[in-house]
Design brief:
The protein is of the alpha+beta class. It has one domain. The strands form 2 sheets. A two-stranded antiparallel ribbon has the order 1-2. Strands 3-4 form a two-stranded antiparallel ribbon. α1 crosses α3. It is elongated, with a radius of gyration of 15 Å.
Length: 100
């Protein structure tokens, strides 16, 4: 069973005929299909993980069951919180087992 988490939005989002005040995130491994991480190294044992914004936006949409357009209409702080959840989920499962 997938882990779920409710995020209460600081600023409700009017979208179509509804106003959304919370999102139910469902963390399913199948949502990671098609996503990858690129790790670069400086040759001295240090590296960085390269994540582009569109990857995090798409994954955020999948986790929340909403469209990328909905995510883009969210308040910036709420967007940041959702994108952080997506980033942590991605890094946990594709980045060696722990978020950066």
């Amino acid at each position: 069973m997938a882990k779920e988490k409710v995020i209460t939005l600081k600023v409700p989002v009017p979208f179509g005929s509804e106003t959304v005040s919370e999102l139910m995130l469902s963390f399913k491994l199948k949502y990671l299909r098609g996503h990858s991480l690129r790790v670069t190294s400086d040759g001295k044992g240090s590296g960085t993980v390269d994540l582009d914004f569109s990857t995090l936006l798409d994954l955020s949409a999948k986790l929340s069951g909403r469209t990328p357009a909905f995510i883009e209409d969210m308040d910036e702080d709420d967007q940041g919180l959702l994108i952080q959840e997506a980033r942590d989920f991605l890094l946990k499962h594709l980045g060696g087992g722990s978020p950066a």
